[in-house]
Fold these 2 entries.
Entry 1:
Amino acid sequence: MKPGVATSAPNVAFKFDDDATLLAPLQVGDTFAANRVFMAPLTRSRAQADGTPSYLAAQYYAQRASAGLIITEATAVSKDANGAYVNTPGIYTDRHQQKWADIASAVHREGGRMFMQLWHVGRMGHPDISGVHPVAPSAIAANMTAHTPTGRKPLVVPRALETEEIPGIVADFRAAARRAVDAGMDGVEIHGANGYLLHEFQSDVVNQRTDAYGGSPENRARLTAEVVEAVVDEIGAGRVGLRISPGNGVGDVQENDPVATYEALLDRIAPLGIAYLHVLIDPTLTTFGAIRALWPGVFVLNTGRNTGTDFCQLESFAEWGAVSAVAVGRSYLANPDLIDRLVLGAELNEPDAATFYAPGPVGYIDYPTLAELEARESA
Ligand SMILES: Cc1cc2nc3c(=O)[nH]c(=O)nc-3n(C[C@H](O)[C@H](O)[C@H](O)COP(=O)(O)O)c2cc1C
């Protein structure tokens, strides 16, 4: 199974009341979101070989513009940052930027709002995909395989980053954020979750450094915090979100004490006043309450990998004020008109895991809206 990725999602049909909290608008930093059901970042492996987004991506995202906020698929901040999956996009060349500008325009034309998720895959990268040897906090391989162009292969032992190389990683995030907003994105989400580079630094299991980036929670938080600070400096706090998955690691990317670990990070970045914190966590865990209590700003919840989305539960959380908004992945993947369906209480299309990462339009831009289904039935 791919990290951070569920294989199937039960879709729970649910009807929002007219006054549902999740249907109410929300100011998210500089961005006005028309509702609080955001589209979670979803890698779709349909980008061109050079990391330029697919020709179909503008249509795909525009179809989903009724989401309060679209968070794009994870997008590499540099060539070296790539390589966890084939055909994933980047935002480090003019050509990438130009295509992302077309996508942002298409979403804005439909009234949508969009943040780009920025990632560095760290030790999850495979040289057969990226063409470079992966880097990580420490030279510890993930006990996992990658889907390379020539089949499944084990991940390799990464090279531990030298301390002197770390400012270059921070600079790559900064430059990518600049390109993203220059392309017309409303903001960026820094990917600090799911076992990729920033999460690897947070983990006391796979980060065994002895410099200022390893050891104490404050040290392990340093790289993520420096990235957030640099990106805030570049594009403004109101256009920056951060995704984390505390206590919800992938493989050995875990924290023995997630609350202490993330307290160090959140204490440091909370005063910056970023647009939102996006947390991938099972909300029935006590860690959820502890992390929630640490964040004074907009708090976006994604309920995790295999449980599917329980909209009734999420609406209750929003009504209680436990969450400001929710991020939903597979239900948006399969239902471009998810909001309409939730308003009507209509049945949801089932996501087809077989086409999550398959090339081409099938399972990408061909999930029908309710209106299309009705037109088919009456034809
Ligand atoms: C096909 C697929 C691709 C994903 N790609 C990303 C990604 O690029 N970045 C990320 O942070 N999470 C990614 N995830 C995780 C989702 O954002 C989300 O956390 C997960 O699907 C659980 O939410 P859901 O039950 O609403 O689908 C992906 C999940 C799936 C199913």
Note: The domain at 21-378 is CATH 3.20.20.70 (TIM Barrel).
Entry 2:
Amino acid sequence: MIELPTELEPVRVFQGDSLVALRALPDGCADALITDPPYSSGGMVRADRVNHTTDAKYTLTQHAGKRPNFGGDNMDQRAWQSWCYEWLVEAKRIVKPGGYLVTFTDWRQLPALTDVVQWAGWVWRGVNVWDKTEAAKGPHLGYFGYQSEFAVWATNGPCVTKPSLAEGGEGRMPGCFRQAVSVADKHHQTGKPTPVMRWLVRCCPPGGLIVDPFGGSGTTGVAAAHEGRRCLVIEREGPYVEIARQRVGQVLGRDAGSLFGEVA
Ligand SMILES: C[S@@+](CC[C@H](N)C(=O)[O-])C[C@H]1O[C@@H](n2cnc3c(N)ncnc32)[C@H](O)[C@@H]1O
């Protein structure tokens, strides 16, 4: 039994497998599903996929060994797409009609992701761009810079129009966000900056519930807490569950242990 976040306890961090956890949630319980699954990107042959830790794959030498490794990042594209189908179908079941899906990916997996989002029944609406700026990992000379990642967005059926600023709403949501990675705000090998997640969580109505089934260091929960949204963070790896609980506890000004004691 997974307890959903409440007004008093607006962010909960649940330790467990995302598919098992999503299947345990009731139909239509969430306003949005916003997440950053393992990309499983770049492995052309088996050796690429199995012989490197995520630290070796993602971390610059000067920061090596500082953040825990994580699993689920070593599938080939066909397996990754089938697996995405499984969780995207559950995601659609738990999100209310008109609610949002926002899920990150990189340029290699973008076409596979936009296909599988639609196979799972979502209405694909667009691709938001996170511009990591010129500070992103350097490209080879003669290449265009790999300085963007993408947040595919979709809705569960027709899109619900939001109130305008004049009507007391929060105004237009930008489709592109420029934000360099800062070491002080990076708590996961592939963590997203808090300002980027604060931008995205605004697709959920104030006070509404976001589910993040691949929560990592809890950045979606931290952003939700800042923006007055509720959030259920699901993460499988114990060290990241601890980091997420600490971070969310700090934003809410509460003791992580007493707030988020639930373990699958
Ligand atoms: C790309 S990271 C998310 C990072 C996050 N956005 C942040 O800012 O910290 C993906 C996370 O999904 C977790 N994960 C992978 N497979 C999982 C599964 N089947 N169930 C739950 N979590 C899983 C990994 O442990 C990893 O921490």
Note: The pocket of S-adenosylmethionine is lined by residues 17-18, 36-38, 70-72, 188, 190-192, 214, 216-217, 219, 234-237, 240 (CB under 6 Å).
